[in-house]
Amino acid sequence: MPTETFEFQVEARQLLQLMIHSVYSNKDVFLRELVSNASDALDKLRLEKLRDDTLDADVSDLHIELDIDKDARTLTVRDNGIGMSYDEVGQLIGTIANSGTASFLKELREAKDAAGAEGLIGQFGVGFYSGFMVADEVTLVTRRAGESKGTRWTSRGEATYTLETVDDAPQGTSVTLHLKPADPENQLHDYTSPWKIREIVKRYSDFITWPIRMVPETGEGDFAPEAETLNSMKALWARSREEVSDDEYHELYKHISHDWRDPLETIRLQAEGTFEYQALLFVPAHAPHDLFTRDFKRGVQLYVKRVFIMDDCEALLPPYLRFVKGVVDAADLSLNVSREILQQDRHIRMMQRRLTKKVLSTVKEIMTKDADRYATFWREFGTVLKEGLLTDSENRDAILAVASFATTHSEDEPTTLKQYVERMKDGQEDIYYITGESRQSIENSPHMEAFRDKGIEVLLLTDPVDEVWVDAVGEYEGKKLRSVAKGEIDLDAKGEEKADGEREKQTEEYAGLLGWMREQLDEDIKEVRLSTRLTVSPACVVSDAHDLTPALENMYRAMGQ
Ligand code: ADP
Ligand code: MG
Fold first, then answer.
1. pLDDT tens digits for 405-414?
2. How many CB atoms neighbour CB 33 within 10 A?
3. 516 near 522, Cβ under 8 Å?
4. 38 lines ligand 1 (CB under 6 A)
5. What's the rounded Cα separation, in Å, for the pair 407 and 240?
């Protein structure tokens, strides 16, 4: 087959431009990205061979190799992993499948200055393309395990790339970076220096479970020096807390999550006894763009005795903690364990319960120790966590304890339910809330008038899920959760009770008007009654205590129910 030329997809082209004219100062991370891809490819091959031992692939010495050629100014990252077929190269390297990247690009276009752009780039992994930060041409040669022919991909990062079939490609993938001309001003970024490469690998990729070897420069004579393994390959989760620096934990997080930012929190758990496991979990500092989409990938990897088994293992944490990333390493599972088996395994279920409690207690701890970090957590993940109020009755109280809500008490400080209860007025028995689309729209609702007048605090709930959990949960520490828009509300309870019969007397007095209104609005309403909840507006619409709220009605209608 002749060499074919293809155009990059539009988004891919934009991303490449960004890399080429990179304003991102930490260019060293390109190597982390390439090593991370190589490591994934080795994991995949090992698993595929395990499933199908007729696969024609050599798994006896899986490793990553770094090869510097000072004269040609190239750096090659090579693995003998799964490789890619001709079509896969075009799909995986020529397009951007990740939906988060598209929104990233949009934000980037809107970023006003270089500093803003740099901040954004730092937040998103751009993977393979990051090679173009340091190279003006990249060549990738790959052969899919089991196939006989390989593929060569080349690009200068501009509009196009080329593909051609090659006959003699070794199994796996090699990525060769033709490095940009050396900058005499900046020796620090000389990627042809073995010293520099050693340092980057140590810093970013030490925990990678496959050996990363540096091929020595071919010297004079026959004595080829031994390749040097640059990483310790020690599983961080198996090492004691004191042995591991925060930076090392953070690099593992970045490898797993493909996030370029540090996590908000690192959680360690070691379980001993009949079912032994170690867990190292991370709470990200930012919610990913696709958290609420159907194909969101969970980020907890399952290992069995240091051997990678699967990505995004959904059996390990409940759906409402799907944003948590990390590794769980279990001692007593089969290497062949399937997702179906995991879902039913009693030990895995116990593990899930324990991990869930651990995550929730960690959030509680953040809340008590560090208000700012808690605020970040809740802003990013509060909405997801509230799903747990519906699905996880066992941990309902633990979730309520770390939940906070916008409130009429303060413009910008949310409140916990505990704080709300502490501020409740004498004689106030219920916790009041109102739901709706935005704080502004519900604060101005006529339902709020009497509450504002009497200085009674109301929670302002604006997430769609709020409608549902308040009903499901019903009360907090014996105090009912009550919508200000539902049922009869008597704010004159206790102490200032109206004179007996006064309400009846008024109702009698207005009987004519009420009856007339009832007739006029017959189609749309159940009842017209005098209200204590209004101070300024003449009338408002209220639902029965057990009716759906308007927002929920809309939601169900939208879902076609
Ligand atoms: P990500 O790793 O986040 O998926 P990348 O841009 O780093 O994004 O890589 C894109 C895809 O290209 C990978 O998901 C993988 O399928 C493929 N790929 C990249 N490098 C390799 C490699 N060394 N071996 C096999 N496949 C690779
Ligand atoms: Mg990658």
1. 999 999 989 9
2. 23
3. no
4. yes
5. 43
* Nearest residue by C-alpha to atom 21 in ligand 1: 37
- Rounded to the nearest angstrom, the gap between the alpha carbon of residue 132 and the centroid of all alpha carbons in its chain is 26
* DSSP string for 208-250: -SS-EEEEPPP-SSS-PPPPEE------GGGS-GGGS-HHHHH
Task: Answer yes or no: is 124 a known binding residue.
Answer: yes
CA of 78 to the centre of ligand 2 (A): 14
Q: What spacing in Å lies between the alpha carbon of 362 and ligand 1's midpoint?
A: 33
Single-letter amino acid code for the residue at 184? P
Q: Quick check: ipTM above 0.90?
A: yes
- Ligand 1 centroid to 98 CA: how many Å? 12
Q: Which residue has the higher pLDDT, 43 or 222?
A: 43
Report d(CA 300, CA 230) in Å as an integer: 26
Does position 121 have pLDDT exceeding 50, yes or no? yes
Nearest CA to ligand 1 atom 14: 92
- Taking only the tens place, the pLDDT of each residue in 168-201 is 999 999 999 999 998 777 767 799 999 999 999 9
Q: Show the tokens assigned to 342.
A: 């995991």
For residue 79, say whether it is annotated as part of any ligand binding site.
yes
**Measured between alpha carbons, how far is 22 from 133 in angstroms, rounded to an integer?**
6
Contact 431, 417 (CB under 8 A): yes
